[in-house]
Write a sequence for this structure.
């Protein structure tokens, strides 16, 4: 009888984990939408606000500044407050920022509202990773991270051609107001249905140790600054952190800031056609996330996939910037850039596997800090170079190609740090290497 009850409880865990994950991954769709949505309204921003390339890059980077600053606090929140409360608060804040953006009349207000959006959505992904660790077995962690990233990337697809179509009907301002309303509705669903761990429902824990679900008294013996200090002082965290950051910054520059404008300018195609290419790039990222997580788990390797993905990014950018050719070659380069965007799946796994498992949330937050620090800085540097090239009298195509040297350098940095990363064999090696 006891065995039968145990089997039933295990079955309940297996069933309900998909409810928990499913709701959170829909919230994650909105994260990608907000992240990339400004890329298709560049013309609207130029018309309504008179923004330069640098100002447009700064607007996009406001999201990433907030996202970057919030990664370590988010790691602390999900480890100690729990993912559920963290996501509810974040969704409401993001909704307020999106609605405020839709009412912006001056550049400063637009900047502030995008900062608020970034602040709100910044907590979602680490919360999902924490939930995955609590509801799914460790051997499925990278695979589930890949599936999550794939579904999330669909939100980026919504921010391309579909958003252009909606804007054509209701305008860009009402489009962002609608997204704010959607975010509030999702916060309500999280409040009603999400549980931080199976134990909150009286079900057996799937993995109480690895994801910080063990003895809380033991976990709190060290202060948060002490735990963060240990992570930062661990040299093995820097390989995955910078490898992710440098590739992610370059990829998001293309898909979220200057990609559409570059393709329209360089190849004289329609804005919708350019957005479709960006959509294909994002779709490649999503598919690659599915493959990268599964392949990495099955290979029991983090370093080799990391190197391979960084190399794909470099080849893609070289094809896009340095090789003169037809639009088909640029599309091929864009697709390779998209595939490289899945490097985060491997880097998040590697980052938590080289650090103390009790603070996995904070470890992954450090990796994410660099992911979105580069995403904030790389477009701004590129925008400044682009404005400088235009001011120097360059034609638009040459100005863009010169500015795109910035992401090329970024992906070279990513490849170097991928080679410097520590192989973990797809398991936590902290206690093996800290003695």
């Amino acid at each position: 009888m006891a065995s039968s009850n145990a089997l039933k409880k295990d079955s309940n865990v297996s069933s309900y984990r998909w409810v928990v994950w499913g709701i959170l991954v829909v919230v994650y769709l909105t994260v990608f939408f907000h992240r990339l949505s400004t890329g298709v309204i560049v013309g609207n921003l130029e018309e309504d606000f008179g923004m330069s390339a640098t100002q447009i890059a700064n607007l996009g980077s406001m999201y990433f500044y907030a996202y970057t600053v919030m990664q370590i606090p988010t790691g602390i929140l999900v480890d100690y407050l729990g993912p559920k409360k963290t996501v509810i608060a974040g969704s409401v804040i993001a909704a307020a920022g999106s609605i405020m953006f839709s009412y912006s009349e001056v550049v400063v207000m637009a900047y502030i509202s995008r900062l608020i959006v970034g602040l709100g959505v910044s907590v979602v992904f680490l919360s999902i990773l924490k939930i995955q660790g609590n509801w799914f077995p460790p051997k499925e962690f990278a695979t589930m991270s890949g599936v999550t990233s794939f579904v999330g990337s669909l939100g980026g697809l919504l921010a391309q051609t579909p958003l252009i179509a909606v804007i054509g009907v209701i305008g860009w301002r009402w489009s962002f107001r609608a997204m704010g309303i959607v975010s509030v509705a999702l916060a309500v669903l999280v409040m009603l249905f999400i549980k931080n761990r199976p134990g909150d429902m009286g079900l057996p824990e799937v993995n109480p140790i690895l994801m910080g679900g063990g003895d809380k008294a033991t976990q709190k013996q060290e202060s948060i600054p002490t735990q963060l200090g240990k992570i930062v002082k661990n040299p093995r965290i820097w390989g995955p952190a910078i490898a992710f950051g440098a590739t992610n910054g370059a990829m998001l520059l293309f898909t979220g800031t200057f990609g559409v404008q570059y393709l329209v300018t360089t190849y004289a195609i329609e804005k919708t056609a350019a957005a479709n290419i960006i959509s294909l790039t994002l779709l490649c990222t999503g598919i690659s996330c599915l493959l990268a997580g599964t392949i990495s788990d099955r290979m029991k390797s983090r370093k080799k996939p990391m190197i391979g993905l960084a190399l794909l990014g470099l080849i893609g950018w070289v094809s896009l910037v340095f090789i003169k050719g037809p639009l088909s070659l640029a599309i091929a380069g864009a697709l390779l850039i998209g595939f490289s965007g899945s490097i985060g799946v491997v880097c998040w796994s590697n980052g938590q596997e080289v650090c103390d498992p009790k603070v996995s949330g904070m470890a992954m937050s450090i990796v994410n800090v660099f992911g979105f620090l580069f995403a904030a800085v790389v477009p701004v540097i590129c925008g400044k170079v682009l404005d400088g090239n235009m001011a120097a009298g360059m034609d638009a195509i040459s100005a863009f190609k010169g500015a795109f040297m910035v992401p090329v350098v970024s992906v070279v940095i990513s490849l170097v740090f991928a080679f410097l990363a520590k192989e973990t064999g797809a398991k936590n090696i902290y206690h093996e290497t800290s003695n």
